[in-house]
């Protein structure tokens, strides 16, 4: 991913400091389920180290990985948009260290500091656009691979 798709470096220092004042450090062991699609999106993370796979349940027995996230990446965006439910699941692919943010506290901060709110919203939108394009490319690749094997 490019620097433009990293959340924290995109924030001006004063806004980054205000946001980071709400952060707490957490860790997840390898193979830990961080959240499930349909669950309440009441927090989000910025990954410090390790890798997380985002997945979609396609059958009762099968999950498909739609993205792999690493250091500096935003994990979770559903906290920003009602109904505040996860659209995907997430699992630690390796041991993960991250900054965790309480979604309601960040939304309140964005209401108080509308400049931060606008920058955060734009940055999350840019991250989503990048991930959507990457997912689209991955799906097209799988489609081509399946049909060329026939």
UniProtKB/TrEMBL annotation:
Superkingdom as given in the UniProt entry: Bacteria
Domain Cyclic nucleotide-binding: 7-109
Database matches in Pfam families: cNMP_binding
Protein name: Cyclic nucleotide-binding domain-containing protein
PANTHER family per UniProt: CRP FAMILY TRANSCRIPTIONAL REGULATORY PROTEIN, HTH-TYPE TRANSCRIPTIONAL REGULATOR ARCR
């Amino acid at each position: 991913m490019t620097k433009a798709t990293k959340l924290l470096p995109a924030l001006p220092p004063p806004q980054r400091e205000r946001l980071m004042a709400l952060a707490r450090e957490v860790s997840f062991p390898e193979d830990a389920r961080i959240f499930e699609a349909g669950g309440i999106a009441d927090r989000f993370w910025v990954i410090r180290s390790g890798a997380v796979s985002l997945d979609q349940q396609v059958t009762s027995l099968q999950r498909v990985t739609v993205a792999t996230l690493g250091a500096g990446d935003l994990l979770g965006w559903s906290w920003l948009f009602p109904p505040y439910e996860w659209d995907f699941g997430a699992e630690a692919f390796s041991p993960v260290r991250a900054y965790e943010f309480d979604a309601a506290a960040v939304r309140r901060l964005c209401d108080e500091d509308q400049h931060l709110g606008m920058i955060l919203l734009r940055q999350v939108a840019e991250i989503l656009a990048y991930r959507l394009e990457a997912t689209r490319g991955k799906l097209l690749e799988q489609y081509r691979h399946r049909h060329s094997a026939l």
